[in-house]
Each structure stands twice: as C-alpha cells, then as structure tokens.
Give the backbone structure.
Amino acid sequence: MTARLEHVNFTAANPQAMADVQCRLFDWRIRWSGSAIHGGHTVHVGNDVDYIAIYSGNPNTALAEAGSSYSTRKGLNHVGVLVNDLDATEARVKAAGFVPHSHSNYEPGRRFYFDGPESLEIEVVSYE
C-alpha cells in the first residue's frame, strides 16, 4: 500500500477569506464548504487530488492567539505548495500584497516563503 497526504486541516478566523486568497494565488477552487464540528464552519480549497481544510470554530467562541509555531507543540509551521512556475507565482504573491522572503535554491528545486492571510506561512516550491 502506498499512502499519500490528502489534506491538512487548520483553524482560521475567516476560512472563506483565506480560501479566496488561495484560489487567486494558486488557481485552486473551493471543493466544499459547510458546517463543521463544535458549531464551526469549514472550507476545503485545493484541486481534484488534495486540499487544505480551513476550519473556524463556533462564532460565539473567541480564538486564542498561538505563540510561534516553531516553538509550540502541535503548531503548524507552514504549508508547502508545489507550483510549475515559481517566478509567475511569486509575481502573483507580490501583486496580492504579500512579501516573499527566504528565497533559496536547493537540490532538487527552488523555493520562497511568504506570510499569507492570518499570518499563515506558505512555502512555494518548484522542482522545474
């Protein structure tokens, strides 16, 4: 049996707004949106194969701010997105008002990071 990652689920204050940005930057689509556990709401955004599940809890319950994900157990450090054209994607990221950082070339590809909606760090990588 071969396993593959199907989705990642994380909490955000405004899942629809975050999903809208992901659709514009990566040509993704909303796969599903609806009610979720604990009176919350979830939006699935991605492609036909894999996706990100963006969850918000009950609107009557305030979300707590977390510390640095790199020093918090069970913290989400970043989401990695594979693209065919790194330069074109970086241009989209900049046009959307985000600031790319931490560019690097490494075997087998190139990458950069940016802090997206709600400060979610996104790594964009290309192996082309």
